Amino acid sequence: ILKNSVKNPIALSAGTDLFQRYVVGVLQSPSRRSKDEGEEDFKAIREQLLENGRLFVERAKEARELIAQTAKGLVREGDTVMTFGESRVVNRVLDAAADDGVGFRVIYVQDTQSGAKNATVERLRGKGIGVAIIPTSAVAYSLGMATSAMVGAEGVVENGGIVSRMGTYQLAMLAKNAGKPVYVVAESHKFVRVYPLGQYDLPVRQRVVDFKDSNEEEELAGKAKDERQRSGEDNEEAVDCTPPELITSLVTEVGVLTPSAVSEELIKIWY
Predict the structure, then answer these.
(1) CA triple 149-250-239, angle to 5 deg
(2) Of 96 and 234, which is predicted with more confidence?
């Protein structure tokens, strides 16, 4: 039900599937059964599930910190890091590097439609880090000034690719063409058992390319979109899939992985 309630269930899938696996294991465990076969202590099980839910959240925060301590080594003195997608993990990595006194710069790719202040940009500038904000249309132009690209992910799929905010694939393609390394920082609980065959094989509901055969239809669609934005019903972000051949390495709390090692890590997690 939870997955069906959102257009993009990728981010939910990995965590909820793992938690569901744990729940089933708890309910099937002989230690959870009372002397009378089939009579479980519902309150005790409920409390244990809630406690483990809280533990999952705590470990997710710990994972970000572990990743930051590892990935900050990828940000060296004099580097210019290009980032996109407003990833909390990327933000934590950049904060950790800044806190260590590393002198670097950031090219922050931001949607031109977003006029809101960016807390990460303000925080980094407050630490003496030079940050340039550019629109997505200026990525190719600006890559020549970047040392590397660093992005987060909503999900890491079985072939070592990632599903992330729309535009990540474009950034990775351009970075690869420019000879710049592309680093992905993501928690291992985002590893998801999905194997997309291409951009249009993702289990998400989105309409990025929407053909219209009349101007009137276009105007009506525009008004409907404006209304959804005003009512808060159009907050779902479109995503794309970045293939593994464009990714240099993935940094997780369990270490630095090549894209080809993701399937092995999934086997460890699930089996």
Answers:
(1) 65
(2) 96
155, 190 Cβ separation under 8 angstroms: yes
Q: Are 237 and 51 in contact (CB under 8 A)?
A: no
CA 86/CA 84 separation, integer angstroms = 6
Nearest C-alpha neighbor of 95 from the set 119, 67, 72, 118: 72
pLDDT digits (tens, 9 = 90+) for 178-197: 999 999 999 988 888 888 88
DSSP 253: T
Segment 136-158, tens digit of pLDDT: 999 999 999 999 999 999 999 99
Q: Give every CB contact of residue 136 below 8 A, 6+ residues apart in sequence.
A: 84, 109, 111, 112, 167, 170
Contact 109, 137 (CB under 8 A): no
Q: 127-136: string of b/e by CB count within 10 Å (b at 16+)?
A: eebebeebee
Rounded (5°) CA angle 47-51-14: 115
| β partners of residue 239 | 165
243 contacts: CB under 8 Å, gap ≥ 6: 159, 161, 169
| pLDDT tens-digit map of 4-26 | 555 665 666 666 666 666 666 65
**207 in Cβ contact with 7 (< 8 Å):** no
CA nearest to 190, candidates 165, 162, 171: 162
